[in-house]
Amino acid sequence: MSTSHMPDSDATTPAASAQASPRILIVADDLTGGNACGALFAEAGLRTITVTETSPAGSIDIRGLLDDFAAVVVNTDSRHLPPQQASELYSDLIESAGPVDLVACRIDTTLRGNVGPAAAAAISARRRVLAASGGPRHRVLGLCVPAFPAAGRTTVQGRQLLGGRLLEHTELAFDVRSPMRTSVVEEILASGADLDCRLIDIATVLAGRDAVRTAVLDAIGQGAEVLIADALTTDHIDLVGSVIAEISHDVAEATAPDTLTRAGLADGEQLDWVTIDPGPGSLALTLSSLPARADGILLGISGSATEVTRSQLAAVAEDPTVTVLRTPLDDAGLPDVEATLALIDRTASARAIIIATVLETSDLRELTDAESEQTTQRLAVIASTILSAMPVSGLYTTGGDVTATVMRELGAMGMEIDKEIVPLAVGGRLVGGRADALPIVTKGGLIGDTGTAVECLEFLSTTARVRRD
């Protein structure tokens, strides 16, 4: 992935201030694996589509899809093709897809199929595309992080394990079409391809960020074409992705001359990565390459008085980057719009601000139907005013009446659904009105457990970093 290709922010309204959508091409060797990989990207808040058309001259316009989706997964059904045919298919797809920010080779979690030929073809095609683009010179490398810990696949000392066992010691040794004779990732990559690989071993990963950074720079400086990284947990994968993104950014911005020297890069030369993994590694690099945060706050509006909601707000308030405020009340015991907005003005720069009517048991009041309706309306006015006054990159609402009233106040005609974060808590984007395409998460007051609001904000944080035009 090349950070120099990420489009610049193009904010025109407070509600549309996030980074423009990335263009991620994921070439998968089979349908089920491609769909599983796509689901990872979608669950992270990136709009994703999977397609089965593999011919550049076919009816599917991959370039057009990349205009509409952050990630396009092309399922090639190439796992059991002859290596040369698989290589040609990958080359044609990558070269025909046009400008992208990341090319990812989605491989089998147990490394069956044309892993080496597909990776080599993807790296070569990416080099040709960048060379023909007329932009800066790039060194294109492969990043292979084959672990998928959530599915019981880990990588230790460069060997892929399934449930803690070497692949050749499992039933995969007797696979009819792709019997596994080795678990050594480098050997699998070298089968049918000529790739110079270097391993970032588990000891280095466990040693932490500085150790991984040093190992990556040394491997690049030694002329490696593919970096293989061990991982036992998703956190290990995220660490590797984060370090790779950081190094690539430092090189692109020329902020660390010693990085260029250590990596053996020429002045002006940049790094670009082709990921080779089942999905988590590609996602980790993608998320680490997005802006560190959206250009705007996450705004929460809570009109629920339930004990569930109060516990969720208390959990969110433990995050020092989140400010949770109770609305001051006027003489009538209703939320005071002006006083609440004054509190917002005095709030230190926070990642998220949540405005609630009830935080403690002592805040509970008996309201008439008219007072309940007025409370909801005033919360909607507060939300609308904040959206007009400052950049807001995501909206979190709890309480069905509050959500509906806020949407009406903003002129939204509805909500495009992206994901059910937990049962009955839904993430998506507003449709229509002056906050069109603003990421939003809605949930009822009795929905979820103590950590649900934290999960909802995490979803918004990712989604808000990608603007959908």
The proportion of residues forming helix, as a percent range, comes to 25-40%
Which assembly state applies to the chains in this document? single chain
Q: Estimate the mean pLDDT confidence.
A: 89
CATH architecture of the largest domain: 3-Layer(aba) Sandwich
Low-confidence stretches: 4-19
How much of the polypeptide forms β-strand, as a percent range?
Answer: 15-25%
N-to-C span: 22 Å
What does this molecule look like?
It is an enzyme of class 2 (transferase). The protein has 469 residues and is α/β, with parallel strands linked by helices. The chain has 15 helices and 18 strands. The strands form three sheets. An eight-stranded parallel beta sheet has the order 2-3-1-4-11-5-10-9, sandwiched between helices. It has a seven-stranded mixed beta sheet with strand order 13-14-12-15-18-17-16, sandwiched between helices. A three-stranded antiparallel beta sheet has the order 6-7-8, with no helix packed on it. Strand 13, helix 12 and strand 14 form a beta-alpha-beta unit. The longest helix has 21 residues. The radius of gyration is 24 Å and the shape is elongated.
